[in-house]
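Pinned message: reference record for Probable ribosomal protein L13B
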Amino acid sequence: MAVHHNNVLHNNHFRKDWQRRVKVWFDQAGAKKRRRTARQVKAAKLGLRPVQPLRPAVRCPTFRYNMKIRSGRGFTIEELKAAGIRKKEARSIGIPVDHRRRNKSAESLKINTDRLKAYNERIIVIPRKTKQNKDKKVDLSNVTAARQVQAVLPLPASSVAEAPRAITAEEKEFQAYKHLRTTRGAHRQAGYLKARQQKKEEEAANAKK
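Predicted structure (C-alpha cells):
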C-alpha cells in the first residue's frame, strides 16, 4: 500500500527478546506422574468406593450411528424405579442420575435395569460411624470384588452376529424396495382410507333409516 500524506513512517521492532517468551513443556512426563500420584493419594483418603461411577448403556444418536452402544451420562428415573433404587440413594452409592433422558424402548429399559440390579448385588455399603451403628460389624471380605464392579459390568454387545447360512427361496423372491414403498404408502393413506370407510358406513346407516 502506497504512503499518502505527511504521516509518520512505521518503525516496527521485530528483534525483541523472544527467547524469554517461549513456553516449553519439558516436564510433561513429570507432570503426568505427579497427577497420577495425586489421584492415588486422593483415592486413598476417600476410602473404599467403586473405581468409577456406573454408567448406563445407551444408543448413539441419529440413524447413522444408533447401532452402536456407548456409555451414557446417567440412569433415568424409570430405570431406578424398576431396579428398586431411590434417586438420592443412587447418587450416594456411585450411580449417576440423568433426569433428562427418556426410555423410548423396552430393550434399553431392561438392559439398564439389569445393570443396576447386578451392581446393587455386588456393591458393599459401609455405614457411617454413628451412635446407632457404633457396634455394627460389616463383612469386608468381598471389598476387592466391590471395588472392581465396573470391570465386572462391561457394556453389552451392540448386536449379536448370526452364523452364516444359505439364502432361502422365499428370501430370494422377496422384493424389499417394493415392500417398503407399499408399506409407506399404506401408512400415509391410512387416515384418509379410514375416514372414507367411516363415511360410507354412515351413509349406509342413514339409507336404512
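Pinned by admin. Summary line: The helical segments are 28-46, 77-83, 87-92, 106-122, 143-147, 149-152, 169-173, 176-208.
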